[in-house]
Amino acid sequence: MSQSYEVIFENNRKWVESKLSTDPHFFEELAKTQHPDYLYIGCSDSRATAEELMGAKPGEVFVHRNIANVVNTLDMSSTAVIQYAVEHLRVKHIIVCGHYNCGGVKAAMTPEDLGLLNPWLRNIRDVYRLHQAELDSIEDDGKRYDRLVELNVLEQCINVIKMACVQERYILEEYPIVHGWVFDLRTGKIIDLEIDFEKVLKDIQKIYNLTESNWVMNRKTK
Ligand code: CO
């Protein structure tokens, strides 16, 4: 499926033309501002496109992608994206979307030295360790792989919910809600893992409650 580099500019020219043919002010409007309702955190995999699989238009989704859709508190890139989306864009929904046949998850299941990728894959290996009893009880390799993809989404959702900005904003506005999805490359369908956001939030607040600060309480009573 390789194509020449120049094709991209040709595609871009056609895209601009088609946008302008339906709305002559499309780019004028686009340039003004953004009010996306969704933050999408997904895998960098070239097959798991964010906007296309959701049928979203420019301006509708704020996107962060990395290998195996990981949210780690020490990763400034993902935490800055979440902070900005929650505090400034006031997104209503945060979606963590994994996908079956994820190379990052597969690599993490392989207990070998993968050099520079090791510290990144450790995030997923930690997910495996947290759920080792369940995963090791699955005999079929393919099913175990699929399940780790799902559990990785769940744990990354929990990592999002651990963040103070998410907890604070939720108390103030009842948004954002965090959702866990898996994109099934084999069917093209999005599967909603139906994570019970309220319950996860309540459970983790026993340990990670970051909302008792005076700042939040003062804002809440205003
Ligand atoms: Co992937």
From TrEMBL:
Q: Which CDD domains match?
A: beta_CA_cladeA
* Membrane-spanning segments: none
The record ties this protein, via Pfam families, to: Pro_CA (PF00484)
What is the top-level taxon of the source organism?
Bacteria
Instruction: Write out the residues that bind Zn(2+).
Output: 43, 45, 99, 102
Name the EC number(s).
4.2.1.1
- What binding details are noted for the cofactor? Binds 1 zinc ion per subunit.
Keywords from the UniProt entry = Lyase, Metal-binding, Zinc
An example of a GO molecular function for this protein is:
carbonate dehydratase activity
The top EC class, named as a word, is lyase
- Entry's Gene3D superfamilies? Carbonic anhydrase (3.40.1050.10)
Q: Which GO terms describe its cellular component?
A: cytoplasm
PANTHER family assigned to the protein according to its UniProt record, in alphabetical order: CARBONIC ANHYDRASE (PTHR11002:SF51)
The family classification in the record reads: Belongs to the beta-class carbonic anhydrase family.
Job of this protein: Reversible hydration of carbon dioxide.
- Which named protein is this? Carbonic anhydrase
